[in-house]
Amino acid sequence: MKMTKQPIFLWSILTGGVLLSLILANVIELLEGLRYLSVTFIMLLGLRISVESLMIWRKNKSDIPFFWLLFGIAFTCFWMYRSLYELYIQSDTFMPYMVVLVVEIMSFISLFIALLYKLSKRRLHGKGKSYVFDLLIYLTILTAMMIQGSMFLNQSVHYDFMAHQYLNSTVQVLYTGVLITILTIFYFNKIEMNNRNTTQVLVGLTLIVCIDFVKYPIYHTSQPVLVMLDYLTWLLSFLLISNAVHNQLTGRNTTRIKPKRREKMIFWSVRELLLPTFAIFVLLILTLASSGWDVDLFGLAGLICIPLFMAKQFVVSRDNTRLVENLEQIAYRDKVTTLGNRDAFLHMLHQELVSYEDSKKAIVILNVNRLKKINDTYGHRFGNEVIRECVHKIKENIDPDHELFVLGGGEFAFLYTMTTSEEMESNLHQVSQAFATHVHINQRDVLVSIRIGVYEINHSEDTVTSILEKADIALKKAKEYPTHSVVIFNEYLQSSLIRKMKIEKELRHALANDEFDVHYQPKFCLKDDSLVGVEALVRWENEHLGKVGPGEFIPIAEQMGLIYEIGECVFRQAVGQCLNWNQWLDEPISVSVNVSVLQLEDRRFVGMIEDAIQQIGIPPELVELEITESVAQNLDENRITLSQLKQIGVKCSIDDFGTGYSSLNVLEQLPIDTLKIDKSFIDRLNHRISQSVIETIIHLCTVLNLEIVAEGIESKNQADVLREIGCNIGQGYYFSKPLNQRDMSQLLRNYSKENKKRVARPS
C-alpha cells in the first residue's frame, strides 16, 4: 500500500499547495488552477489503478485474477492516453492527433478485452434468454446514437486526414461495445448490485465512455465551464475506480450483501421491464426530434401509451417479484424452523467461494442425535418442537452474524468466521455443552446430544463438494467419540476414510470370492498341558488391500450389515473343521467361535446355529460361542437368545471379562458356561493387586460353577502363577500363535503322536 497511497497523498498536498499559491498570486485563473489540479490527480490515480490492479493479479486477490492483469494493462493505456491528450491540448503541433487517437483506441480495445474476459467467467442464469432481447434493443439504440453522433462530429470537426475519420469511427464502435459489455456484466453479475467494488468500477467506466464520447463538442465550444466538467468527470470516474481497486486489494467490500426486499423488487422491475421500455420511449423522442417535432395524432398516442405501458409493467413486475419471493421461501426455507435449507446453504457456500475475503472461514456441521427415536416415541409434532428448541440453543451460543441452516436428518450448518483454530474449537465446545442438560418441552424432559464436524475452507483449492465431503468426514469421526465431541478435519481423517471406503467396497465381494480364512489358536489345560480345544479367529487377505485385521474390518462389516453373513461363514467353516479333526483324534476337542452382539440380536441367529450343527453333524456340546460383555446392554432380549442356545446344547462364554459392561448381576442372570479373563489382567499378573483381582474372579467362577479361561498368556511364569491360583485353561503365544488350518492340523498330529505329553510349538 505504501507504494501507491502515501506518494499520492504527499504529491496531492504539494501540488494543491503550489496551485493554490499561484491562484492567490493571480498568476493563473481559478478554473485553470482547478484544471491543473484535476490533471495531476487523474495522472496519479491512473497510475495507482494500474499498479494496484497488477498487485491484485500477482497476489491472487480475486476469484478471476487474470481480469485484473488485463484491467491494469488497460488503465496503463488510459493513463498514457490522458497524458498524450493533455500534451495535444496544450500544443497541437508538438503532439500529432493521430498518435492520440491510436493510444485511445488501444485503451478501449484493452478495456473491451478485459470486460469480455470477465463476462466469459460469469455463468448466465435462467433470465439470460429474456435479456438477449433487451440487449438487442439497447444495442440498436446505442448504435444509432453513436453513428448519429459520429456523423455530427465529422461534420463539426474538420480532420486533416481521412485516416482521422476512420479512427474516430472505430472509437465510436468501441464505445458501443464497451457500454454493452458493461450493461451485460451488470445484468449477469451474480451478486446483483451487492458488491460495491464491482458497482463502482462499472459506474466509473460508464462515466469514462460517456464523457469521452462528448469531448469534441465540449472542446470546440471553448466554454471553460464545460471543459472543467470534462476534467471533473474523469477525476470522479478515476476516484471511483481507484477506491474499488484499492478495496479489492485490501479485501474490503468483497462480501455479497443480500439485498433488501424492496431494493430487490425495484432493481428487478427497472432491469426487467422499465429499462427496455424506457429505451424505446427515448428512441421515439429522438425520432420525433430528428423530424423537427412534427407530431401527429399517432405520435401523440405513442407518447401517451408508452408511459402507461411502463406503469402497467411495473405493477406486473411487482406482483411477479412477490410470487418469486414466495417460491424462494418454499424452495430455500425449512418449514419447521424457517431457517435456510440445504439448497440455500449450498448457494451461500458457492457465493463464499467465488468471493475473496481476507478472513478465514470454516464450515461447521452439527448433528443432533436421538431425533428419530424421539419421533418414534412421542410423534413428529413433538419431534418438531425438539428441533425448534435445538435451533434456539444453537443460536444462543453462536455469533449472531453466523446464519444457521438446516441440512436435514438432524443436521445443521453455518459458516464460522475464524480468528484462531483454538478459539473456534473452544467456542464450539460451548455450543456442544449447551446440550449437556435435558430439553424441556411440553412438560417432558428429553435428552439429546450433539456432535460437531469442522473444516477450515481453503478458497484457492476447495469446491463446494470437497468442502462438504471434508466436513462430513470430520462429523463421522465425531460420531465415533462420546457425546458432545468436536472434531476438526485433518489429512489423517481423510486418509482413514479413504481406507474405510476401500474396505467397504472390497467387503461386498469378499464373501462371494471366498476371501475369508479361519485361523485357530489352541487352548490348553494348565494342570497337565493337554490340548482341550481351539478358538476360531477370522482372517481376511485381499488382493488390493493386503492383510486386513479383524479389528479393522469387523466394525465396518457391522455398520454395513454384513456381519451376520460373515459370522455364518466363519461358524460353518470352523465347526466343520473341528469335526474333521475329531474323527482322527484320540480325545475330541471343542471349538469356540466369536459372535458379534449384532449377530446375537438377529432373529435368524439361533435357527442358523441349529441348522449348521445338524447339517455338519458335530455334537453341540463341543461348540462354544464367545460373546463380548456388551451383551449386557440389552440384557432381557439377549438372555432369551442365550437360553435358546443352551437348549440346543451349545455352550456360551463371556469374552474379555473385566473391560466392559459386566457385573455380578449380569453373571448371575445370563446362562453362560465360561468366563475368559482379558489379556490386560494377565499382563499385570506380577502386580499384587491384579493377581488378587484374578483370584477373586476365579473364586467367583467356582461359586457360580463357571469354567475359567485365561487368554493372552505369553510366558511360563504367567502360566505357573495362573495354575497356582486355580485357573484351569489358558491360551496365548506361550503355547501357540493362531495357526491356519494346515499348521493347526500338523500341531494336532504331533500332539497325538506324543500321546499328549509334549506339544510341538512352531517357531
UniProtKB/TrEMBL annotation:
CDD domains: EAL (cd01948), GGDEF (cd01949). It comes from the Bacteria. It holds the Pfam family EAL. Keywords: Membrane, Transmembrane, Transmembrane helix. The chain crosses the membrane at residues 35-57, 64-82, 94-119, 131-153, 173-189, 201-219, 225-245, 266-289. This is Bifunctional diguanylate cyclase/phosphodiesterase. Residues 500-752 form the EAL domain. The keyword Transmembrane helix applies. The keyword Transmembrane applies. Residues 359-491 form the GGDEF domain. InterPro entries: Cyclic-di-GMP_PDE-like, EAL_dom, EAL_sf, GGDEF_dom, Nucleotide_cyclase, Rev_trsase/Diguanyl_cyclase.
